[in-house]
């Protein structure tokens, strides 16, 4: 342990702590723009400059190691002037259209401008005035991600998040040098023309509005306000344990009921649970898996509910497509059932005759779900996809006091009933654990096998595995980088019978559409909340979902039936 004194407060720290760690431990706020807990820092923004007594120059707190006995000053007049000068330089290149910006109110840069009272120093530049005619400044070609380089402050976090330290996709890299440095795509292509998998991890780390999810919430508000169609919304498992963060609640706060109440206040006629379809996914995918196990064909089976992963396979390894489960993701299953299944029919004949079909929205922790909804073969079943962040913006824009809502909202049925197995879909390892729970029943091993598979859980491990008696060895790739590493070594073909891949570390709870957070423990806290919901749900195996049993009895006949294939399965293309 070492002891350092920071602004007259002494704290004890472990070896290898930085000056920023010291400040955090002492509760001293130091501004940062290019620092993010899981990524390497390059100390380019210079906002965190602090002075160590005796040192010749101010040093970046994010990158400088603390030493025993250091006496650190963070708030001298000289340091404040440094920061203001730096921000002024950034502001001179930044468009002054905050009020129209999608991240207005949640922009780290804007927050600092406010904190340091810099509005008066802001030059009145026209929007997008950054002079770089040779590079694309705005790019709205991707259904999932929008880029606007005029808002970029060159922190480099997107390059790291997409590159070696994160997703290892290397879609964004730096062009130019010095003060002209800017993150651009490979060959300056539009994002939709690159190998971008739409995971949105770049949007999570962007401190401004330079990288955001393709916004759809304006259209959703407009459609709800004009209210010409019956509207239905579904909410994904990982959204309910994170949305509270947008309203100042601690990570891991479960807000299912509050979110349902907010969605009703926003004007949705029906509020359904994606978890219902997650249970259905398990029935279909579990059956598909056991059939493949019997025939020995196309093993190991790869899970297919993560659209970032499906995009990656289609773009980079089409030879693996036969291994992907043909089962649609829960989002798309739910969309198909809402638009074309018994629910649509229950609304009356009008709704199945074209024009007046229900308006269907989903709330997802994921940016890639926006492009999934447009895939050939499923497109049309979901009208709009909102991220967790977008839903929070809608709630704020409507003046709904989220924190004051009761946690008592309930989903509409029958597309709202679910089991604990569906809830754990939102965490890395959860889909596989849910498959195992139901496969154990299908193979007559329910009594013999445990319900919980802790080897498959966790948000920090790259690859997790478990040997399931009577079934075989299964693996979890926690993040697309872990999957890429596994696929480099061919032994996965013989070693495993099934592999779950989630493109984002942590699974959906770490998705690119979740609230942004600098809390290094945020993923663990969301994960704990997900497993707590599972423990407190009376039914914890997907086949126990009574509404799913009814659905098979009245409409689908049995898992993998002809009708089930029509509604619930899909195909892939290179
Ligand atoms: Fe997911 Fe899924 S778990 S993919 O992470 O299978 O996005 O939450 O909704 O579709 O259920 C996301 C989450 C989500 C689907 C389910
Ligand atoms: Fe890279 Fe994912 Fe961002 Fe695409 S969405 S640029 S793959 S981090």
From TrEMBL:
It comes from the Bacteria. Residues 78-117 form the 4Fe-4S His(Cys)3-ligated-type domain. Keywords: 4Fe-4S, Iron, Iron-sulfur, Metal-binding. The keyword DNA damage does not apply. The keyword Heme does not apply. Its cofactor is [4Fe-4S] cluster. Residues 1-78 form the 2Fe-2S ferredoxin-type domain. Residues 143-162, 187-216 form the 4Fe-4S ferredoxin-type domain. Composed of 13 different subunits. Subunits NuoCD, E, F, and G constitute the peripheral sector of the complex. Belongs to the complex I 75 kDa subunit family. This is NADH-quinone oxidoreductase subunit G. It comes from Thiomicrorhabdus heinhorstiae. The chain holds residues 1 to 574 of 690 of the full protein.
